[in-house]
Amino acid sequence: MTWQGTMDDGVLRLQHSGSLQPGDIILMHFRPDLRKNLEVLLKAAKNAGLVPAPLEQYLTAPIR
C-alpha cells in the first residue's frame, strides 16, 4: 500500500500536482497537530467533491 500525500503541521503535501483525487491515500500520524491536520484535510476533500473513508473499508472482505 502506498500513499499519495501526507499531512503535517496543517499542510497537505501531495505527490502529484493539483488537488485530492479519488483513491488518494493520505498518511497521517497521531501527533499534537492531528486535529488541525484533520480539519485541513476534510476541507480539501470537500473542496474536491470527495468523501473521506477509512482504508480498511476497501481492504476488508466481508465474512460469510
Description of the structure:
- The protein is α+β, with helices and mostly antiparallel strands and 64 residues long.
- It has one domain.
- 28% of the residues lie in helices and 16% in strands.
- Strands 2-1-3 form a 3-stranded mixed sheet, covered by helices on one side.
- The two termini are 25 Å apart.
Order of helices and strands: EEEHH
Question: What portion of the residues fall into strands of 2 or more residues?
Answer: 15-25%
- Radius of gyration (CA) equals 13 Å
Strand tally is 3
Q: Give the terminus-to-terminus CA distance.
A: 25 Å
Counting copies of identical and different chains, the oligomeric state is single chain
How does the overall form come out from the CA principal axes?
globular
Poorly predicted sequence stretches spanning 5 or more consecutive residues: none
Structural class: alpha+beta
Query: Total number of helical segments?
Result: 2
pLDDT averaged over residues: 89
Quick structural overview:
With 64 residues, the protein is of the alpha+beta class. It has helices at 34-47, 56-59, and strands spanning 5-8, 11-14, 26-27.
Spell out the blueprint of helices and strands.
Blueprint lengths: L4 E4 L2 E4 L11 E2 L6 H14 L8 H4 L5
Parallel strand pairs: 1-3
Antiparallel strand pairs: 1-2
